[in-house]
Amino acid sequence: MSGQGQRLTVVPTVTMLGVMKARLVGATRGHALLKKKSDALTVQFRSILKKIVSTKESMGEIMRNSSFALTEVKYVAGDNIKHVVLESVKSASLRVRSRQENVAGVKLPRFEHFVDHGAGDAKSDLTGLARGGQQIQACRVAYVKAIEVLVELASLQTSFLTLDEAIKTTNRRVNALENVVKPRLENTINYIKGELDELEREDFFRLKKIQGYKKREIERQQQAAKNFAEEQYAEKISLKKGISINSAHNLLTCLDVTLREDAYSSSFHGDFPLLFVAYGSITMGV
């Protein structure tokens, strides 16, 4: 799909991760709402299509009856009846008005007819008084019915075209959210999570290295302090015994090794604490 492998160019931070998650939630809700809107428009679209088919089927019969009624009028009253009717009528009494109908946020135009009784002329009612008056009134009723069907068909076809365009636009938005926006946000969220995990691993490794360095530094300082203490103690022994510092170091080393061996062998006979007392008395008496 077009959204796979793509992501937004963002800085991988915790704040941006929250922003991307919020945008993903909004895109998911918008996708669900647009999907419901598309379904509602599709249902209305199919309903209008059925009405158009039925209206067109009935329109043929109505137009045939009106044409046949006009033929009867011309046969009874003569061909000059058209001019007589036009002279007797000053303004149209059957009018058309428009209104808007809201369907799932889409405004559909609706046309409806109505009779304006004030616009009619009383002289038109006397048309055909000499001959053919009944056929003229029947023809008038037939053509009024035909006009009603034509107005209804015009309203349905206009709503049909408007709904068709609205459904196409809604479906394009649904597909864009489903195949582009949501995958891009998901890829961005996965990228930010991966970068944050990598930073966390780097911080953990850095802390371990710092702890190891501190531990080695402490051990080095302790060893230096121990060496300094042994050096000071060796100098005291050399001064008291009148021997060299190297001989004092050797003496301390021999005493330390001997005491370690005796402590190991005496630990099985319960004399281990006594050796430390002896070692303390030897070192203090040296």
From TrEMBL:
Pfam families: ATP-synt_D (PF01813). Keywords: Ion transport, Transport. GO terms for molecular function: proton-transporting ATPase activity, rotational mechanism. Belongs to the V-ATPase D subunit family. This is V-type proton ATPase subunit D. It comes from Musa balbisiana.
